[in-house]
Design a protein that fits this description.
Helices cover about 0% and strands about 60% of the residues. The protein is mainly β.
């Protein structure tokens, strides 16, 4: 079955940068949509960035111009480059893959990663 494994989170000072990675594993034929979500303490989960298989991108207004999402379809991996980080970016970041086609059967799956902590603090 499909698994998503995130990496790259950690502690960074305001103005710094982090690069998150999320690798999907399994007998994957294709993934239509990949994205990053985040959830801060006391807040609801929100979409940070989204990218389609064809490379169409969407960003939350709060991260436009600072974050960039990319993907490598051959590696089934999505990245989130985070620059000019602010304390309000502090959250658990979750990777998501949607409309995942696998070799067994014809169903499409939605898969979530376990999350990685990003803390922006001086």
């Amino acid at each position: 079955q499909v698994q998503l494994v995130e990496s790259g989170g950690g502690l960074v000072q305001p103005g710094g940068s982090l690069r998150l990675s999320c690798a999907a594993s399994g007998s994957i034929l294709s993934i239509n949509d990949m994205g990053w979500y985040r959830q801060a303490p006391g807040k609801q989960r929100e979409l940070v960035a989204h990218i389609t298989r064809g490379g169409s991108r969407n960003y939350a207004d709060s991260v436009k111009g600072r974050f960039a999402i990319n993907r490598d379809n051959r590696k089934n991996t999505v990245y989130l480059q985070m620059n000019s980080l602010k304390p309000e970016d502090t959250a658990v970041y979750y990777c998501n893959a949607d409309s995942v086609q696998i070799s067994a059967g014809n169903k499409l799956y939605n898969v979530w990663g376990q999350g990685t902590q990003v803390t922006v603090s001086s």
